[in-house]
Structures are given as C-alpha cells and as structure tokens.
C-alpha cells in the first residue's frame, strides 16, 4: 500500500518536523560533500512555499550518545543557509527548553521558518527508540515528515517511535517518495533486460540482495573484492585477495541457485593484481585462473572483463548498481569501475545507483547527471533491495 505523502498534508501555518539525513562528511569544520543536504531541498522548498515552519532533525556520525564537538550539526546549518538563501536557526539541543525556544522563535510571524536541531544521537535514547524521547521530539511539531531514506533501516526514535504520535499527520517526504518509487520499480515491475551490478568488499554485505535478485534479474555482474570469495569457492587462485572464508558455502549456494533459476551470473575473467594498494605499486593483468597471482592481491577487474560487462549492459532497460569493481580510489585500480560507470550512464532505460562508493564512482567518472536515480541510502538501499522491511518506512501510515 502507498504511504501518505507530504503532498497529502495540510502544511499552512504548521510546525513540520522533518527527519532529514544530514549525515555528511565534515573535515576541519568544512563539509566535503553536501549531496545529502541538496537532496533534501525539494521537500524543504515545498513545505516553506506551503507556509510551514521547518523543524529539521538529523544524526551525524556515531557520537555514542553524548555531545561531541566534532559531531555537531552547526556546520550543516551554515551550509543549509547558503543553499536555501534563508536564515537558518540552530538549536543547540534537539529536545528540551533550547529546542522549544528555537522553534517558537522561527515559528513567530517574523521568524525565519527554518531551524536545525542539534545531533539526535547526542542522546542515547535516539538509538534505543525510546518512547519518552520520541514524545519530546513530537512536542515540537504539528506534522511529521520522514525524508531520511538513509536512516529508514534503523528503528530509532526519530524514524520509528515518534511516527504513531502524529497519527495521519505523518508522511513521506519527496526524497523518500522518490527512493521508494525507483527502488520499488526495480524490484516490482522492471523493464527488461534487468541487469544488476554488484561489487564492493564483502559477499556478506550483499548475500540477501543477491538471493533476492536471483528471482528478478536477467543478468548479474559481480566485481570488486567480493568476487574472490566466489573464486576460492570455485577453486581458483586468489593470492592475498580479500576472501571471506566463512562465506564459501554461501557463494557456492548462490552459484547453484543462479543456475537453477536460469540467471546469467557473471564473474570477472581477468583482473589487475599488485602486491599492495598504492598508486606506485607495480601492476599486472592476469586471467583469473592464472596461478601467477602468487601472493599478490586482485584490486580491479581487468580490461577484458570491463569490455564484457559493458557489452552485457548495452541492451539493458533497468540497471541497479551497488559497489565498485575495484579499489577505485587509487588510480591504477579505477579503470574497471569507471568503465562500468560509463556503460551504466549509456543505458537507455532506468538506472539506479546505490551505496556511497558507487555514488563516488559515478561522480569521479563525471556521469552522475546521466543516472536516473542516485540513492542517498547505502545500508537502507541494500536492505530494501534485499527484500527486508525498513522500520522508518513501515512506521508511516498507509493511504486508505
């Protein structure tokens, strides 16, 4: 059933509590990537235009339930003011007198209409999904909107316990709606051929996704370090490549299930190997069955695999990509990932990117503007694509 949308709510004159995902990288007090902030702007603009007062709440990092200067959202408030070209008040707490005063000030007739609350995780009750903490948050507002898909897989107070307190005055924001639309489309009614590209370090992170995809995709392309667990399961030489020894049986099961379901599961046929992850390391391209890997590591798919994967993506109508093909942050091991990024960008159809590393890869390749949807939720998108329910989504009321 579809969830209530912010479009279904009456916002004029309302105090709207918006759970956003402003968990952005900050270095020396400066935000190094504001993608998650800009992704929230459509919802913020929509509500402001409708005459609402915005009460924005987010977590940042892992402060372990107590205040820590390096995890303050103050730099985010400054950046948000720049992006919205509006005054953004900052409350130095997310509950209590400080929060109440800040909300009252911005909600006044002459108020700025936007306040960002301090880091929710400065209170241990947030991650405990505490009911009393949720009531304190709810007391700040008249309406609740969840626009934080990146936090939707956590049963935390600001995404789960707080929602029922608003009844039918709770809804999904525009970003949340967009995430659910495109990811749901891929799982429910994809145009075919449907191709999934999965990479990254660990098979364990993606077992549920792979198993769920085996009943839905036409082709599955695997790369990254996770390929080496499959290689070892097949008896191929892996050198010092990353292998999850306790997932060898799981890898064998996946290969068996793919064959039984007539899913074309592709593993790399060649790879770039080196003795260390370093831009100055001496590299060599080998077939994956070549024992000459010795005690070196596989750090990228090779050119033959890149061409193969590009060819297998050419006729795709739906593509989901999560996880790089190699250690793309280091230039000698980036060619495979960048080649796949270009191929995904060339697809005539729906293309969906999930996961921080994949997002960084399409940005590095300069093709982000040619991707249909770039998900803001790494862990959340993995769990959703793996067929798991997300507490932050489940909590939202359904339309009658």
Compose a concise summary of this entry.
With 400 residues, the protein is of the alpha/beta class. The protein contains 14 helices and 17 strands.
Structure description:
By secondary structure, the chain is of the alpha/beta class. The protein has two domains: 170 residues, 3-Layer(aba) Sandwich (Rossmann fold); 204 residues, 3-Layer(aba) Sandwich (Rossmann fold). The protein has 14 helices and 17 strands. Helix 12 links the parallel strand 16 and strand 17. The longest helix is centred in the first third of the chain and has 15 residues. The protein is elongated and about 70 Å long.
Highest-level CATH class of the largest domain: Alpha Beta
Q: Would you tell me the structural class of the helices and strands?
A: alpha/beta
Largest β-sheet summary: 6 strands, parallel
Number of strands: 17
Backbone shape: elongated
Calculate the terminal CA-CA distance, rounded to whole Å.
8 Å
Q: Summarize model confidence as the mean pLDDT.
A: 94
Reading side by side through the largest sheet, how are the strands ordered?
5-6-4-1-7-8
How many domains? The number is 2
Would you identify the regions where 5 or more consecutive residues have pLDDT less than 50?
none
